[in-house]
Specification:
binds iron/sulfur cluster; 11 helices; 325 residues; alpha/beta; 4-stranded antiparallel beta sheet; 8-stranded mixed beta sheet
Amino acid sequence: MSEILLEVNGLKKHFAVGKSFFKKNQKLCKAVDDVSFVIKQGKTLGLVGESGCGKSTLGRCILRLHEPTEGEVKFNGTDLVHLSASEMKALRKDTQIIFQDPFASLSPRMTIHDILREPLDTHKVGTVEEREAKIAEVMEIVGLRPQALNRYPHEFSGGQRQRVGIARALVLEPRFIVADEPVSALDVSVQAQVLNLIADLQEKKGISFLFIAHDLAVVQHICDDVGVMYLGRMVEKAPSEALYRDPKHPYTRALLSAIPVPDPTFKSDAIKLQGDVPSPLNPPSGCTFRTRCPEATERCKREVPAVYNVGKNGEEHLVACHLFE
Ligand code: SF4
């Protein structure tokens, strides 16, 4: 059984919104609200939900690109939340991020070589020769030719730029990567290539991933577990196979039913959710999904649902919904 690499307990990120001298007049945006999960060594957790559900904020809080408001983020037993800047810098070598938009995240003034060399220099990894060997190795892993090293990000296609983003995340040999919607900005044909590359890295390098996506179809084949977020909370989490076979939460069921099926004779019975995601500044009372839930009752207005484990045979399948009390 593999060991736990990342353990997140009761993580919260609340942003104060509006300028007011008095704290009581400020509104709170609960972007991440009491989220807990673990990721084992070499495993991948997919995190899915519509835009604005807090999944990217959660990924950034784990790496302390945002400071969490409350909670624990234990990486290999060390709580990252209370580390000093210099202690955190040492751990950054092990924890990396791949951004959604590779064009915005790569400096336009640096060559690909310099982009890959910079983290090795910052962390003083090996000798000059070893750094150059590492750069050549990651270029090969991500399928880019050595000639590309002297070129600039704007000279590449979106898919190639994302390969550079992945190479930069890999160059320090991290143990854990937050992949923040790494294929959302890419064409569908290129998406498959990048997903295959990430699946390869899981298998060959044993890297653990938090893979963030807004679409359940994207994470289906590369995640061991999947968590579904809605308005800052994890509403369902289960092993991938169980979640796709037998989704429990009404929101997960709606998301899954909306995945297109490539068969013109297939009659879709997609569950249509009413309205948009409510503002996190003014979330509904009780269950925050109740304004769009086809199964909402009076109780859902009054009470925040507890989290129930509905897994069979010792499997953990968590769902936050009164229907499973
Ligand atoms: Fe729907 Fe109520 Fe369950 Fe929330 S608690 S998902 S509103 S049935």
